[in-house]
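Example 3.2
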Amino acid sequence: MSVELVKEQIRRFLSSDTPEVLAIKGSWGVGKTYSWKQYANEFKDDCVLKSYSYVSLFGANSIDDLKKSVFLNTIDVHNIGQPLNFKSRSKSWVEPLQALKIKGIGLGDVLGSISQLAMSNTIICFDDLERHSERVTIKDFMGLVSYYKEQKGCKVVLLLNEEVGDKTFDDYQKYKEKIVDRQLHFEPTAEQCFDIMFAEDFEFRNYIRDCCIGLVIKNKRVIRKIVEHTKEFLDLVNGFDENIKKQVIHSTIVLSWCYYCHGADKKRIPEFAFVNQSGIRKENVQVGWTKEITVHWNMTLNRYGYGFTDEIDLAVARGIEQGFLEQEKLIHLCRHKQKEFDIQNASAKWDEAWKLFHGSFNNNEKDIALAFEEGMRDIASSTSASQYSSGLKVLRTIGKDEKADELIEFFIDSKHGSPEDFDVDSVFSFGIKDERFIERLRKSYLELKPEPTVKEILDLRCGSNSYNSSEAEILARLKAEDIYDLFMSFEGEELTDYIRVFMLLAGSSPDLATKVNEALDKIASISELNKDRIYKFRN
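Structure, written as tokens:
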């Protein structure tokens, strides 16, 4: 049922004094509670009954608790939407309670008695039925609902997810035919879920909205978190190119969706760890990423327009996990990305090559090849290897392999004085797919760059997820005894950081991995204390 129809039915329900039970069912997070409270506030002046009470079954341990909660939460309908306080309590029970003075009678007992007598002609909303405790059976609860309706002239609203609940929740299906007068299925669209939450405009609202709709995100709690994340992250990248901002938004939304929603729909929604990995996403049967599920998840991500995960995306993912972004690292990455955009905007030839590529479906391979050659020669001295690689991909796609190889040599000659630009394992070379280009860059880097020391490697890769395979080879030259001595010499924060660098690089070198494990085993054998300290490196 559409949102507008549900809204109209709620208006009709509130504007009548006929005792009845209205059930509003829908999936978790789609906004049943939010919308009910919004509409109750909007239509409070149309309410015929003048008292209102909202109660969640979550946390209630008995029917008596529910009765007391209904009583204590009762307010005048004109106070719907206002903070619940003593002044907003309905006169129907505040005045009797204030006048009651009986020695020896506890307030709990008094409330239990009064709640039975005072509750009449009231709009009562019971929320979270599927989250009831074991001590509150659905059978007894439905009996209470029937009592309020039949004996006390109340109008009762039930908010629930009918598809979820324990076995005792089956009793709801049994008793609802006798007790529920009308049932509405609240199933808003993704568009409606977003618009209900965020009707007013803000920066990039429409783009965020389109992204959420593209993933069919309906859970309003998740939508709220997404908007909070994007606003926070956008503040950090203010001043950068709009495309960078949109990448941050685009990545934040899909990664948040996976992080918060995968558990609710494991088949459709990719696992967070699956998306939060650099490069091509591949199957991994050991962690449950079968070929079938990998293909399905990748199709979902591709439809959304999310290709591979780059370093900016990884920074965003880390921010979602830990609750905040590492500003310095993100700014550093965005500055490099900004440089690429500046190069593209400054080079008319490079820009024209891409316009020609995207501008038609004509068979104009020769024109495209010429345009990219001119554009790549124009930007070779100032661009990054990753940006240059995108042009090589186009040339190889149209069969211009010889020209691509020629331009690789032109790039290396143009940057002969900047060997750091040849470091294919740095974060800024992320995304290079051309194997020939990678091979030539790595060879040139090793020829021009002096071999780093062990200390330089540790400092360079500390806190990083990337490395150069040549660095693993350097560490692998160490003997197990040397690695043991190094580990024993580390102190303070560098102890954990440096050992993790060894373990990171050991991932590509079985020889190094063996030596690292020997060193760790030797340290663990010294004492039970050290054995406990080493545990974190083994798990």
